[in-house]
Amino acid sequence: MVLFMVTSYFMSRSRMPKAEDSKTFTLIKCENGDYVNEREFTEGDYIMKNEGKCPKDNGNLSIVGIYLKKIQIK
Description:
elongated, 1 helix
């Protein structure tokens, strides 16, 4: 039983992304849908946070997604 628990623990850890092979990104979108920007996550980001005005049409920009993205380690 203990062997099963230890094996399960290590198998689940191997599937989780490691901090060094993934980064958190923030997706910002114009309310009119004509502008999208992706940048690295910064502390204080949250979904629906106002990010200012759109450089294309002066519409409101807001955060629509926060997600992990795998990166290649060289």
